Amino acid sequence: MRSAAQLLRDARRVVVFTGAGMSAESGIPTFRDSLTGLWERYNAEDLATPEAFERDPELVWRWYEWRRAEVEKARPNPGHEAVAAIGGVLITQNVDDLHERAGSKDPVHLHGSLFAPRCSACERPVPVGGGHLCGSCGGRARPGVVWFGEQLPAEALEKAVAAASDCDLLITVGTSGLVYPAAEIPHLAAARGAAVIQVNPQPTPLDEVAEVSLRGPAATVLPALLREATG
């Protein structure tokens, strides 16, 4: 912890990179968790694809509206609040809005957002709860997330690559390091000479590039890191 705190104190350009583990600590299931309740007979991978949306758009929409409602019931945890206090550039693989509600400004959502539906035809934003048709062109609205088999949003990826290339410290939190191309971000920062701090309860492939690995939940470790660095 002391070594990580010193790295944070010395850093001038910080990037925080978060994954599903951070949201899981607020009670939001990850894609590795089995679906429950009304959705227990489905696999997440079977609902989060362009093919599933083409086959049964109303089913997919119901699932995403359920997911958004679950997120709205959740609350940011102390890890989210610590990330907001650390500042710098925030890159997240999460599609919820917990970082924003904790006070983080303009996070880069690599995998899109449950709160940013868009038209599948003209790509214009569609208001949340505004129906499933685009008000501009009449095309079918779709959830604003990246599905399996789709590319990451070009603008978000460009911002993430630029930030990782320019930072002197990257803190990776709650990510398995297995989901590509997002998992390249910490490797890119390390290759450009940045120090990498990993926060995760379990070992991950990012151990090989992390200068310091802090084992434990983000809601506990990040506030402790912030106290050590600023105390």
From TrEMBL:
Active site: 111 (proton acceptor)
EC id: 2.3.1.286
Cofactor note: Binds 1 zinc ion per subunit.
Protein's cellular compartments: Cytoplasm
Primary location group: cytoplasm
PROSITE patterns linked to this entry: SIRTUIN (PS50305)
EC primary class: transferase
Domain Deacetylase sirtuin-type positions: 1-231
Binding-site residues, Zn(2+): 119, 122, 134, 137
UniProt binding sites for substrate: 64, 67
Residues binding NAD(+), per UniProt: 93-96, 174-176, 200-202, 218
Reactions mediated catalytically: N(6)-succinyl-L-lysyl-[protein] + NAD(+) + H2O = 2''-O-succinyl-ADP-D-ribose + nicotinamide + L-lysyl-[protein]; N(6)-acetyl-L-lysyl-[protein] + NAD(+) + H2O = 2''-O-acetyl-ADP-D-ribose + nicotinamide + L-lysyl-[protein]
Origin superkingdom: Bacteria
Cofactors (names): Zn(2+)
Keywords on record: Cytoplasm, Metal-binding, NAD, Transferase, Zinc
Family recorded in the similarity comment: Belongs to the sirtuin family. Class III subfamily.
Domain notes from UniProt: 2 residues (Tyr-64 and Arg-67) present in a large hydrophobic pocket are probably involved in substrate specificity. They are important for desuccinylation activity, but dispensable for deacetylation activity.
Function recorded in the entry: NAD-dependent lysine deacetylase and desuccinylase that specifically removes acetyl and succinyl groups on target proteins. Modulates the activities of several proteins which are inactive in their acylated form.
NCBIfam families assigned to the protein according to its UniProt record, in alphabetical order: PRK00481.1-3
Annotated protein name in UniProt: NAD-dependent protein deacylase
Naturally occurring in which organism (per UniProt): Paractinoplanes deccanensis
